[in-house]
Amino acid sequence: MKSTVIKTTGLRKVYRGRAAVEHLELNIGRGEIYGFLGPNGAGKTTTIRMLLGLIKPTSGRIEIFGQELRKHRLQILRKVGSLVESPSYYGHLNAVDNLEAIRRILDAPKSRIAEVLDIVSLTGEEKRPVKGFSLGMKQRLGIAAALLGSPELLILDEPTNGLDPSGIQEIRSLIKRLPAEHGITVLVSSHLLSEIEQMADTVGIIRQGKMVYQDTIAHLQEQAAGDLRLAVSEPEAALELAKRRGCGGSLQESRVILPRMSDARVALLIKELVENGHAVYRVEERRQSLEQFFLQVVEGGVS
Amino acid sequence: MMWRALSADWLKIRGKGLWFLVFLGPLGLTAMQGLNFGIRYDYLKGQYQSDLWEGLLGNVAGFVPIALYLGGTLICSLIANVEHQMSSWKQLLALPVSRTSVFMAKLLLCLLLLVCSCLLLSAGTLGLGLILGFGSQPVPYADILRLGFASYAGALPVIALQLWLSLSSRNQTFPVAVGITLSLLSIFSMYLSEWMPLTWPALAWEAESPWLFITSGLLLGLLMILPGAIHFARKDVD
Questions:
Q1: Which domains does chain A have, with CATH numbers?
Q2: Chain A nearest CA to B6, separation (Å)
Q3: Exposed, middle or buried, A203 (CB in 10 Å: 0-12/13-18/19+)?
Q4: How many Å lie between the alpha carbon of B159 and the closest alpha carbon of chain A?
Q5: For the purposes of burial, counting CB atoms within 10 Å of the CB of A230, is it exposed (0-12), middle (13-18) or buried (19 or more)?
Q6: ipTM score of the complex?
Q7: B112-153 confidence digits (pLDDT tens)
Q8: A204-242 pLDDT per residue, tens
Q9: How many contacts (CB atoms, under 8 Å) link A and B?
């Protein structure tokens, strides 16, 4: 069992009578990339701000590295790097000075600045004022700043928001490298499922401030897996045969639709169909796209 | 921890026009009196012949309170804006540094910059006096030094208030408007009751017992830091 890095219990934040986050239970294990997924305004940023101690929860507990955040905020933050929403930077300073301003507070070694610039591939741009950087570069600088204190936990809020495809690709591969190369646990939020699917090991889906799904990506993909479709010469007869073998199923646009089953059973069924004189034109697995599954979860909870 | 935050702040204000402001205030005041005495040299010299330095200092001192109020307002606003501009608060306050240290570092930075201004004012006034040939009379070094700093102590309550206002809201219109209003009101301090802290910078220089107003300014200034610091330590950062 992996040790837990972030654990929240009954986390709640109320803004002017409206609950932005409601009874949120987060559980993030060490070395994981945890994808925090939800539509805009679902409470992702509010949760992340609470995890960083930027805003106070109305009620509930936050434990990071097994310590309560409220009591040990500075100790915990020493081991946490963060990037919250739009990049924060001092536009009039160059990249090195931006990092130096943070380094002075962290009291990290000076050599660390060159190291993090190298990790985010900004070496060579470090002497230019940051206001002239592209959004992607600013975002990478933000990640460099988050890495400056050699954190054990990295909290990234919408790190790819507003980036072009190549920028997204860069950030994504960067994030995927971190746990393997530096042993860092990553919490990354996004409103795009495809993003999270490509980066995370575990996903938590939040809707209107409530956690509606929390499991591994593999499990999510499994749940979203779709049905089997057969195009055969005599659909009715084929369906009868499938039903006799206990596969259930239905007919749709003269295709036999069968629920998901194991490879061995599919092979057996096809064999029988062929032996009974059916011509099998196509065997397709129609996956319900994860996106559809996600929308289903977000709109009405998981079935 | 506060010193680390201060050293970071020191770096961040580079190229933000703060140093320009620090120099502009005192050198502007000195230049103004240079013009005043340059144009009416003989008249003023006749007027103040018993004590030329006192004449010069008195003329400069008249503008010190408003310069301190305006300068303090703008310095507080510019310092706060360094963080407001690109919403850097969320990044800064998610670092392992206490909110109180961050607040105190900003306050200290603001106060240090104004100390620089006051020193420059004393130096500038001394230089101007010597250029005008007042060196023939004994130079009142203590008074020259007191010129900026006495009023500075009297202005502390307003400066602490301005820092609080500037740090509190992203939009600097309100804090700057308050600061300018107070600066303009301070011109009429001779008509106001001496119980009004607004009059203290002027009184700290010219009253019979200036120490009363210097001490009051220091004490109330310290007191004004408290609500600002507490509010800053507790507020939600967006």
A1: 4-222 (3.40.50.300), 227-285 (3.30.70)
A2: 9
A3: buried
A4: 25
A5: buried
A6: 0.86
A7: 999 999 999 999 999 999 999 898 889 999 999 999 999 999
A8: 999 888 888 888 888 877 777 677 888 898 888 888 888
A9: 86
